[in-house]
Amino acid sequence: MTQATSGAMPLWEVFIRPRNGLSHKHAGSLHAADEVMALQAARDVYTRRGEGNSIWVVRSADIVASDPVQAGENFEPTADKIYRHPTFYEIPEDVGHM
Amino acid sequence: MAVFEAILELADDHLVLGHRISEWCGHAPMLEEDLAMPNMALDLIGTARTLYAHAGALEGQGRGEDELAYLRGEREYRNCLLVERPNEDFAHTMLRSLYFAAFMRPYWLAVLAQSVDEVLRGVAGKAEKEMAYHIRHAGEWVVRLGDGTEESAARMLAAVEALHLYTEELFESSAVAAVAEADGVLPPRAQMRAPWQAVIAEVFEQALLAVPQGGPVLRGGRQGLHGEGLGHMLAEMQVLHRAHPGARW
Fold this sequence. Notes:
The structure holds two protein chains of two kinds. Chain A has helices at about 5-10, 35-45, 70-75; strands spanning about 10-15, 25-30, 55-60. The termini of chain A are far apart. By secondary structure, chain A is an alpha+beta fold. By secondary structure, chain B is mainly α. Chain B has ten helices and no strands. At the A-B interface, helix 2 of A face helix 2 and helix 6 of B.
């Protein structure tokens, strides 16, 4: 892939749903000219081994991400609140994925 | 043996186009297409393998897929001329795929609905979906190149001028194909003209391309009269098997 090609085309994030009932998971990223080409490229690059039955693509530029500088104030206060983890429940098998 | 030879024509179309597309592997203009091209080559080569095995069984001379693919010379290949055309650039490559897949999709649907041959119906069930994707993939590229930059539009137009004269051969049934069609094994090729034209018209309209009307026609592949490029392609494709007969890996 040449620099010119990657520079001219926006980056897309690809999400694949492996099976009905499961949620889409981030699979990777790719370059494509527009959303139709991004979906096709995602199909060709990320579902070659039967990985999924649904694809989402979103422009990487459209993702709003948390600031790594704020990681401390965002995430550390939860570290000592172990009572929030539902470790006291047995999840019945019928419930499936949660 | 007409049915054997008719299925061989179909198998040769798929192997030759599959090999041509595989030549992009490692050379495509972007990583995404470098994976997409082999995907599509493998669709076609996979179909060719089943067709060769089936043809070999019908022939009953002990020839399998390897013998049929690797041990026939250029004059014995019966593919139509369109599929052997060189890759040139992405405009040529995508247009060639669009022309072929737009023909094969209705062809496989007709096989699925009407053929008396169970193996071919099995191939058709898988192949018609693959061809639907090839139409989409190639069609979207044709639209973007045709309605793209000045250079991409010029290349797309050059591809249409170079390749359209090979499309008429798709719709012509050779003598052996006519026998297989009369036997209900294969559908008449001329039947694919209307659905093919509908797909091409829709893509060309979006791509700001005019569908050429009339003009010269090139044919001869079904009689084994090929362009210069096929011999070179087969030499490269067959050298390993000819140098090491029966080689496995």
